[in-house]
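@channel sequence for tomorrow's demo:
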Amino acid sequence: MFVLTVWVIVWLYPPLLKGREKRMSDQAYFERNCLVAALSRLFYSGTKRTDIPGWEEEWKNCVYIDLPTGQVSFHYHDEQKSLFSALPEYTKEWDGHTKDEAMQRIMDVANWHDVCMCGGYIKDHNIGSDHSPVCMWSYYGGR
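structure tokens (generated this afternoon):
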């Protein structure tokens, strides 16, 4: 009986782990895409279908975000289209950035304390009556 139990565990466990790994991966993509969706509302962005040979059709959706530091893009699954449904179609071309370059561009924005959502430097903005910077982009409605 012990040998049979061990055999069943050895035979069944890898597929169970594979299913668990896929669920964890799906959850990680969903969490990342929630953050990407939030970022896409702060900077000019849009969605576009890509035509990458060998990719599964449901992964050819892509959101492009134009950060002050350059373009970044993220593919997302058909199941997560609702996160990006309010975005317009992206009309620019992909600038050829690598994933490492995209991450560096995001980190550069994250490290800027003096950059406005409009892409300009806060020090260049007008000063409001309360002595805080006033961005004309956001003052007039922004995006």
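heads up for whoever presents: The chain has a mean pLDDT of 76.
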